[in-house]
């Protein structure tokens, strides 16, 4: 038994045996009773001062008493309380403050909480409470602070809260509450803070009655389902400092009356569906510090009036439909720290006065229509950490003055028309982690100074006109994770020092003029996900040590001069999703190990090489593969193994030496013939080619045709001689037996005609031959197909059927014979008997 348990046991023993000696009052006993519910946990050690020998608990930690010795406050914060709400305290009639926050309390708030009539502060925040907010809280007429935030409470906000007329602070955010905000909130005339955000289930409009709370300082309804327009009556809240209703469903325009909230410091209305202009009336908000209206549907221009809001520190109007130029009045905002205007339709030049925002930390102008040069004055921004101006129409060179922004961490000027070279001092910025200059007209060489930029994580210079060698100093960038130099004119070899960049996740060097071999040092890039070296002049073989790149999911080395065989060790790169080795000079067979890359789901392209041998049987494991291209090789064998690849959406096996039948699946039947072209022995249509395993098909066909011709002549002579006898016999027996014939139709392939289509054509005029087992007819089906039909004689009672001349072992002979008799081509003949 733990020491705390023994203590509590002795306490009750003492009370029972020596009641006169024990002086602890009832409130102390109640507290100890609550403590006993978790006395076996480590948390009980925080309550070592709770001594049962005391007369009252007034000297215990976390407990405060009034002058008459009754418990008036209990404040326990950040102590793990593995228990439920302390119902033992509900009889504390003098309790004014109950704070049990960040304690992991569970269970529900008891409805008898309304009995604590003296309570002015109830803080149960940051726990794991569940259930509803009890309506009985409305009985707490002295309550001034109610903090139930950051629990798992659900249900609606009880309208009875409106009875707590002295309530100043109402914190209900980050729960699972639902329903509408009760209009009774407007009865809380003393309310200063109302926060109910982080409850996605709350919906409906902001109640107009909230404007009755004239002393309101903070209104927070962010991350809810609040909808409708912002009530213009909010303009009556002269003391409002923060209006936070972001990530909701607000519509309509921002009411001009907001300009009457003269104390407003923070206006957070981003991620809604607000429309219209940014109101000029915001000019009256001289205390405004943060204006966050991003991701709405705002139109018009940035109002000049914003220049009057001299206290502004953050302006975020990005992801709207604003147009026009940046107003010159913004030059007055010398305290600006963040200017975020990305993803609009702003035009004109970047104003040089931006360089006067000496405290500016973030400047985001990307995805607009800015033109002209980047102003060198930006180099004066000593606090600037982020500058984005990508996807504009900027011209000129990158100003060397940017190298003076010593705290710059991220620079993205991609997708513009910038020219010239990269200022080499830019690589002396020790804090630079991201340099993105994709898709410009930049030229020149990457200077060796890049080795000084030791904090660089992302270097993306693709789609420019850079030339020269990739500097070996790039190996000094030990933090580098993204290296993209694609679509340039780099020459020389890939520096082996790249193996020192062990944090690399992506290396994209495609479409340059690189030569040499793939450096063996890539084996040290164990975090690599993407390696793209395609469209260069790289030679040599694929390094065996690529097997070390076990995180690789995209390997593209196509359109080079790589020779040798595909290494079996690639089978160890089990995360590969895309493998493209096309348009090289690879030889040998496809290793079985490639078929064991079961994660390969995007693409396997081995086309335009000199690969030989069959498709490995292990390819049946590539069940996730979507695109397969084996064209322009010298592969042999059949395509049977591919028939089980159910996820294929694209296939090309053209210009190989494949043979045999196609897999009998809808996917293979629906593919155009072009994907099979150049495979002379491949049977694309089962009904138009004959696979019998013989290599002397033409000779055999000629022999059969000659034999059949002789037989045909003989049969015609015999038929003419016996014609009269047959007709007499047929007239007598045919009609007698005709009505008793039953047709047995067994198709062995898909047919586009029915039995009825055939029966109506079985007339004497269509007879082409008779034998001991039946009559053969020439019939033209509705789709103009000419077919041969054999009608068997009925068996006599007890008669054993003779072996049919057109049985399965002679089906090929029958097909040829019927074609000869009818003068049809083999490609257009089907038979009912198959």
UniProtKB/TrEMBL annotation:
<protein>
    <submittedName>
        <fullName>LEUCINE-RICH REPEAT RECEPTOR-LIKE PROTEIN KINASE FAMILY PROTEIN-RELATED</fullName>
    </submittedName>
</protein>
<feature type="domain" description="Leucine-rich repeat-containing N-terminal plant-type">
    <location>
        <begin position="24"/>
        <end position="66"/>
    </location>
</feature>
<keyword id="KW-0325">Glycoprotein</keyword>
<dbReference type="InterPro" id="IPR055414">
    <property type="entry name" value="LRR_R13L4/SHOC2-like"/>
</dbReference>
<feature type="domain" description="Disease resistance R13L4/SHOC-2-like LRR">
    <location>
        <begin position="89"/>
        <end position="194"/>
    </location>
</feature>
<dbReference type="InterPro" id="IPR017441">
    <property type="entry name" value="Protein_kinase_ATP_BS"/>
</dbReference>
<dbReference type="Pfam" id="PF00560">
    <property type="entry name" value="LRR_1"/>
</dbReference>
<keyword id="KW-0812">Transmembrane</keyword>
<dbReference type="Pfam" id="PF13855">
    <property type="entry name" value="LRR_8"/>
</dbReference>
<keyword id="KW-0675">Receptor</keyword>
<dbReference type="GO" id="GO:0005524">
    <property type="term" value="F:ATP binding"/>
</dbReference>
<keyword id="KW-0547">Nucleotide-binding</keyword>
<keyword id="KW-0808">Transferase</keyword>
<feature type="domain" description="Disease resistance R13L4/SHOC-2-like LRR">
    <location>
        <begin position="204"/>
        <end position="310"/>
    </location>
</feature>
<dbReference type="InterPro" id="IPR001611">
    <property type="entry name" value="Leu-rich_rpt"/>
</dbReference>
<keyword id="KW-1133">Transmembrane helix</keyword>
<dbReference type="Pfam" id="PF23598">
    <property type="entry name" value="LRR_14"/>
</dbReference>
<feature type="signal peptide">
    <location>
        <begin position="1"/>
        <end position="23"/>
    </location>
</feature>
<keyword id="KW-0067">ATP-binding</keyword>
<dbReference type="InterPro" id="IPR003591">
    <property type="entry name" value="Leu-rich_rpt_typical-subtyp"/>
</dbReference>
<keyword id="KW-0433">Leucine-rich repeat</keyword>
<feature type="binding site">
    <location>
        <position position="796"/>
    </location>
    <ligand>
        <name>ATP</name>
    </ligand>
</feature>
<dbReference type="GO" id="GO:0016301">
    <property type="term" value="F:kinase activity"/>
</dbReference>
<dbReference type="Pfam" id="PF08263">
    <property type="entry name" value="LRRNT_2"/>
</dbReference>
<dbReference type="InterPro" id="IPR032675">
    <property type="entry name" value="LRR_dom_sf"/>
</dbReference>
<dbReference type="InterPro" id="IPR013210">
    <property type="entry name" value="LRR_N_plant-typ"/>
</dbReference>
<keyword id="KW-0418">Kinase</keyword>
<keyword id="KW-0677">Repeat</keyword>
<keyword id="KW-0732">Signal</keyword>
<feature type="transmembrane region" description="Helical">
    <location>
        <begin position="703"/>
        <end position="726"/>
    </location>
</feature>
<dbReference type="GO" id="GO:0005886">
    <property type="term" value="C:plasma membrane"/>
</dbReference>
<keyword id="KW-0472">Membrane</keyword>
């Amino acid at each position: 038994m733990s020491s705390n348990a023994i203590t509590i046991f002795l306490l009750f023993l003492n009370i029972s045996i020596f009641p006169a000696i024990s002086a602890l009052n009832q409130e102390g006993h109640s507290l100890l009773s609550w403590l006993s519910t978790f006395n076996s946990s480590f948390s009980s050690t925080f309550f070592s001062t709770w001594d049962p020998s005391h007369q009252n608990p007034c000297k215990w930690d976390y407990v405060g008493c009034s002058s008459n010795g009754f418990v008036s406050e209990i404040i326990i914060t950040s102590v793990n309380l593995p228990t439920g709400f302390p119902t033992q305290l509900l009889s504390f009639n003098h309790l004014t403050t109950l704070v049990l926050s960040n304690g992991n309390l569970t269970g529900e708030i008891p409805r008898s909480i309304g009995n604590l009539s003296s309570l002015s502060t109830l803080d149960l925040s940051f726990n794991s409470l569940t259930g509803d907010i009890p309506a009985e809280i409305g009985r707490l007429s002295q309550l001034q602070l109610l903090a139930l935030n950051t629990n798992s409470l659900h249900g609606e906000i009880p309208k009875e809260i409106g009875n707590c007329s002295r309530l100043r602070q109402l914190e209900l955010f980050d729960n699972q509450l639902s329903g509408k905000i009760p209009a009774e909130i407007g009865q809380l005339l003393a309310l200063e803070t109302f926060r109910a955000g982080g409850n996605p289930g709350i919906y409906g409009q902001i109640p107009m009655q909230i404007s009755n709370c004239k002393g309101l300082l903070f209104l927070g309804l962010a991350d809810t389902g609040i909808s409708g327009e912002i009530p213009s009556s909010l303009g009556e809240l002269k003391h409002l400092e923060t209006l936070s209703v972001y990530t909701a469903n607000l519509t309509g325009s921002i009411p001009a009356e907001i300009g009457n909230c003269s104390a407003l410091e923070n206006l957070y209305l981003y991620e809604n569906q607000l429309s219209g202009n940014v109101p000029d009336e915001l000019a009256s908000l001289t205390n405004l510090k943060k204006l966050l209206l991003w991701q709405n549907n705002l139109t018009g221009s940035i109002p000049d009036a914003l220049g009057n809001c001299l206290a502004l520190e953050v302006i975020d109007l990005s992801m709207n439909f604003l147009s026009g130029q940046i107003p010159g009045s913004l030059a007055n905002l010398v305290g600006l720290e963040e200017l975020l205007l990305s993803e609009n339709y702003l035009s004109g030049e970047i104003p040089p006065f931006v360089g006067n925002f000496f405290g500016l930390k973030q400047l985001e102008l990307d995805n607009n229509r800015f033109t002209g040069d980047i102003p060198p004055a930006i180099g004066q921004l000593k606090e600037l950490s982020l500058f984005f101006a990508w996807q504009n129409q900027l011209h000129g060179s990158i100003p060397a003055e940017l190298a003076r922004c010593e705290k710059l961490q991220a620079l993205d000027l991609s997708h513009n028309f910038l020219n010239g070279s990269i200022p080499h001092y830019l690589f002396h910025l020790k804090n630079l982690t991201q340099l993105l200059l994709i898709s410009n007209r930049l030229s020149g060489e990457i200077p060796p100074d890049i080795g000084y930029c030791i904090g660089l994580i992302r270097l993306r210079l693709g789609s420019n006109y850079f030339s020269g060698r990739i500097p070996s100093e790039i190996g000094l960038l030990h933090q580098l994770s993204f290296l993209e130099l694609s679509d340039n004119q780099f020459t020389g070899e890939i520096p082996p020092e790249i193996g020192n960049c062990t944090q690399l996740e992506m290396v994209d060097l495609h479409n340059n003029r690189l030569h040499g071999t793939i450096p063996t040092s890539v084996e040290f890039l164990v975090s690599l996900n993407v390696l793209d070296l395609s469209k260069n002049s790289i030679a040599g073989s694929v390094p065996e040590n690529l097997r070390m790149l076990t995180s690789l999911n995209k390997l593209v080395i196509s359109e080079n001069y790589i020779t040798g065989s595909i290494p079996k060790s690639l089978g160890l790169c089990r995360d590969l999703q895309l493998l493209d080795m096309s348009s090289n000079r690879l030889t040998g067979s496809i290793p079985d190990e490639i078929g064991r890359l079961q994660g390969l789901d995007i693409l396997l392209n081995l086309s335009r090489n000199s690969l030989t041998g069959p498709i490995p049987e292990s390819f049946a494991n590539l069940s996730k593969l979507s695109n397969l291209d084996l064209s322009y090789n010298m592969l042999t064998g059949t395509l049977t193994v591919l028939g089980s690849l159910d996820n294929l959406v694209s296939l090309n096996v053209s210009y190989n030496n494949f043979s045999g039948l196609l897999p009998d699946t809808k996917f293979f039947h629906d593919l155009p013939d072009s994907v099979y072209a150049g495979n002379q022995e491949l049977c694309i249509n089962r009904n138009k080619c004959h696979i019998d395993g013989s290599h002397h098909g033409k000779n055999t066909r000629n022999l059969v045709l000659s034999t059949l011709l002789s037989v045909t002549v003989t049969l015609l002579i015999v038929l003419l001689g016996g014609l009269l006898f047959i007709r007499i016999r047929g007239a007598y027996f045919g009609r007698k037996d005709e009505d008793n014939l039953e047709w047995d139709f067994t198709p062995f392939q898909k047919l586009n005609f029915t039995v009825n289509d055939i029966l109506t054509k079985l007339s004497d005029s269509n007879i082409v031959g008779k034998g001991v087992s039946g009559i053969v007819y020439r019939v033209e089906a509705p789709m103009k197909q000419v077919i041969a039909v054999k009608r068997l004689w009925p068996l006599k009672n007890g008669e054993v059927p003779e072996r049919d001349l057109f049985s399965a072992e002679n089906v090929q002979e029958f097909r040829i014979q019927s074609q000869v008799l009818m003068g049809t081509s083999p490609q257009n003949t089907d038979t009912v008997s198959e």
